[in-house]
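At this stage, I wrote out one protein, both as residues and as discrete backbone shape codes, and that material follows here.
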Amino acid sequence: MSTTEPRKDILNTSDSHSTLGHYVTDDEISLLELWDGLVARWKFILSIVSLGTVISIIGAILYISQEPEYNVVLHLLPPKHQDIESLYLPTVITTSPTETTPWTPKAPNVIDISVGHVFAEFHTNLVSAPLQSKFLSESSVPLNFNVGLDSNNLYVSSNWHDPDRAKQWAIDYVEFIAQYTIAQILTNLQNSIDSRIRVIQHSLDFLHIVANKQKKTLIIQLQEALNIAKRLNVVDPIVESPLPPDSVPLYYIGSKAIQAQLDAYMQSTSLQLDNHDAVALSTQLKQLQEIDVRTDGDGIRVVEIVKEATVSKKPLQLTTTKIVTIGILMSCLGAIFLVFCVFFIHRQRLLMKDRHSE
């Protein structure tokens, strides 16, 4: 009777696959087996850890030796009253809408320029991402600007290796936004003035149309009264009349007086505006038409830059010890994981080869 010898396990495991009393199948790896696999490849692990350590040391040296970075903060202040004096307009134009006629809208307000209004417009443009992108693109500046408030003081900050260049770039950016803000305020101011001019001009044109119609109506009335006076031979005014004053016919004043009034109206080129605000509207229209804010902004300042900028050296976030320690730990974990993968693949191949040989 023949006996069958037990099959030798290529991975040096018995058929029972028992390790410390625990049953282990071919698809499982015991901790002792895994440990033996790691120990057998200690040279491979040591080489990976050594390589990682060398790379970490080189990286630490490069990080420590890099050029230091500085934080530059440029402080900004609102303009003074004399800086925007040329933008001030008469109070009568900016206080409240001007009454025109019952049939036309009120003349709208003109923007009331003040230090607060100008600085608020500048702040809005300063934090605008599209405007900053436009400046960076046109100036080829390789950094971004941060805008914030510190104790109600506006500031612009940036980080760069050369603090002097960073400061100059920040000043250039502030000047760019300031010029843009001035042009914007001038355009808006002129548009509001033009809008007020259009409404007042429309109101006066309407009053002239009404006055012209009234003049034509009065001329027709005088012509009719003149014909009646001539037919009745009423040359001089009729002083006594039994009719009440408001019912006396126009021809009672006589053909001479009627002809004189008619000639005066026919020869006159001006119109009598009955509206009591017509004179005030005409005066204000003349004032508005004399205002011209379409200038290049010379002499206007919307921000004051503090001469001394705050410059501080940014500390390094990592030290040489941290970089090397992290590198060694990452190398150890990577080496162990890589050895485990190699060991597992090698073990599976041996198992498959053993099964095919049966």
